[in-house]
Amino acid sequence: MKKIILTGDRPTGKLHLGHYVGSLKRRVELQNSGEYDDIFIMIADAQALTDNFDNPDKIRDNIIEVALDYLSAGLDPSKVHIFIQSQLSALTELTFYYMNLVTVSRLERNPTVKAEIQMRNFETSIPAGFFTYPVSQTADITAFKATTVPVGEDQLPMIEQAREIVRKFNSLYGETLVEPDALIPKNTVCSRLPGTDGKAKMSKSLGNCIYLSDSPEDVKKKVMSMYTDPGHLQVSDPGKVEGNTVFTYLDAFCTDADFEKFCPDYKNLDEMKDHYRRGGLGDVKVKKFLINVLNQELEPIRARRAEYEKDIPGVYQILKEGTEAAIKAADATLAEVKAAMRINYFEDSALIEGQQARFNK
Ligand code: ATP
Ligand code: MG
Fold first, then answer.
1. Which ligand 1 atom is nearest residue 191's CA?
2. How far apart are CA 252 and CA 21, in angstroms?
3. Residues lining ligand 1, CB < 6 A?
4. CA-CA distance, 294 to 250, in Å (whole number)?
5. Intra-chain end-to-end CA distance of the chain, in Å
6. CB half-sphere exposure, 200, CA atoms < 13 A
7. For residue 317, how many other CB atoms are within 10 A of its CB?
8. What's the mean pLDDT in 313-333?
């Protein structure tokens, strides 16, 4: 069986460090591994509209931001297809048919959607499109027969929903769709990076992000204002590293080589954590180390972004070509789905001839 990747992001803002460690960095590694037959990266504008339908310009303006973030993070358009979701009518059609295969109560049980409804104050009036977006995400994944979906932990219930729909479809209509597997970061910190405010998830909607396109000064300002351990008042006080966001970020980003380069007092993060726990290590020193680590990671990304920003028509051309390739793949699956569902009337000459024979009797 072919190995195919489908993944993507909502164009609701620039991409941040949570996207980077949760999914984007991994995508670049998978792209460069050469192990995949096809890689589709989707800018999920139609999904973003389900909770931003009143602000279409926000989505329109952020397509280019996400595309620039992709390219600057190292996604290579000669190896992956970057495409815009709304331009594939096959995805909407598939969604419509998959709606028959889920119940309202099943959708209500989705923990991520539940949390997102609460975050958006949708409790009293949930847009039906938002409520059913896990079904549309199933269409996105299955349209490409994706085997692998690299995502952060918040997406696990979506992948489970997709697997259920695939099984139901195949058992009703015959083996057609492929059951996908989620690929979650091995480092648990990376699968759900907290925000700079210490909240459970760095998220565009919560405004607690360090963006891939932030300047070195922005990164410095944001890290310097991060919470650490509220009980660690004096440098000499013993400190907590658990729940201390600065250390959580170091868990996600720093390597032993970074200590040699930026903070040779310690060999590795464990030594630094031990000192912090004992007391005698100030927050400013830890924060300065984190700033260096983050800026080192972001520097090549910023440099590539600056190059691509000079050629916006070129970036749109990349999106257009990616979208054309994606349309072809999704249309082929839709044709198979329609055949399996017995709604391919005009492609099925046996149907027409068979019925003629019946009427001739
Ligand atoms: P929004 O607030 O508009 O939903 P978001 O910041 O949650 O935006 P998405 O576009 O919904 O971002 O998520 C895109 C991908 O990034 C998903 O695979 C998701 O799991 C991953 N991701 C998002 N935030 C984080 C995070 N803080 N840590 C790890 N992965 C994340
Ligand atoms: Mg999200």
1. 29
2. 7
3. 9-10, 12, 18-19, 22-23, 151-152, 154-155, 191-193, 201-205
4. 9
5. 45
6. 7
7. 12
8. 98
Reply yes or no on whether the pLDDT at 46 is more than 80.
Answer: yes
What is the helix (H) or strand (E) element at residue 9, kind and residue range?
strand 4-9
Of ligand 1's listed atoms, the one at least distance from the Cα of 195 is 27
Query: Which of 5, 19, 47, 133 should be mutated for ligand 1, with most atoms under 8 A from CB?
Result: 19
Minimum CA distance residue for ligand 1 atom 25: 18
Say which ligand is closest to the CA of 202: 1
| Residue 48 structure tokens | 């973003």
Dist CA 6 CA 149 (whole Å)? 6
Q: Give the DSSP H/E element, type plus range, for residue 161.
A: helix 156-173
DSSP per-residue codes, 270-310: HHHHHHHHHS---HHHHHHHHHHHHHHHHHHHHHHHHHHHT
CA–CA distance from 65 to each of 5, 47, 161 (Å)? 22, 17, 29
Q: Which alpha helices (H) appear in 202-265, and where do they start and end?
A: 216-224, 245-253, 256-262
Q: How confident is the model over 249-293, as pLDDT tens digits?
A: 999 999 999 999 999 999 999 999 999 999 999 999 999 999 999
